[in-house]
C-alpha cells in the first residue's frame, strides 16, 4: 500500500476493492442487527463503513476535487474530531447495510475515477485550498499524500472489520 506511480495506485485500489468485497460478503452472512454492534469498545461494522465514506469525502471529494461541502448525512468522522460546522456526526443513525453500501459504492467509484485519471504530474501536484469549514483544514495538500491517506484508511479499517467480524461470528454461533 505504498505505490510509487499512477499504475501502482491503480493496483493498490484494485486489491482493496477485492478485499473489501470479501469482507462485505462475510458481513452479509451475519444477522443484520449484529452489524450495528460495537466490538471491543470501538465502532460497529456499519460505523466503520460510514467512517470510510467520511474519509473519502474529506480527502478525495473535498481536498482533491475541491468540493467545500462533500458530506452525506451518514458520514461519520472519527470520535475525537471536534464538532465542525457543516460536517455531520449522527452517531445514533442505524442505516441498514444496503444503504451504507450504496453510499460506499458511490465513494469508491469516485476514488477509482480519480486514480484512473492520475498522471505522474497530477500525482506529484498539490491540491488547491478549499475555503470554508470542514475537514481537512483549508490549505494545500500533496495529492500523493491525500491518496495514501485513503489507501491507509481502507487497509487498516478492513483489518479492524475482519477482526470485529470474527468476534461477531462467535457471538452469533
Uncertain runs are none
Order of helices and strands: HHHHH
Compute the number of structural domains.
1
At CATH level 2, the architecture is: Up-down Bundle
How many helical elements?
5
Strand percentage: under 5%
Described by strand count, sense and barrel closure, the largest sheet is: none
For the secondary structure, the number of strands is 0
Could you name the CATH homologous superfamily?
A: dinb family like domain
Radius of gyration: 16 Å
Gross morphology is: globular
Rounded average pLDDT: 96
Q: Can you characterise this structure?
A:
This protein is mainly α and 173 residues long. The chain has one domain (6-172): Up-down Bundle (Four Helix Bundle (Hemerythrin (Met), subunit A)). It has helices at 6-28, 45-64, 97-116, 120-123, 143-172. Helix 1 (6-28) packs parallel to helix 5. It is globular, with a radius of gyration of 16 Å.
Write a short abstract of this structure.
56% of the residues lie in helices and 0% in strands. It has helices spanning 6-28, 45-64, 97-116, 120-123, 143-172.
What key attributes describe this structure?
173 residues, 5 helices, 0% strand, mainly alpha, Four Helix Bundle (Hemerythrin (Met), subunit A)
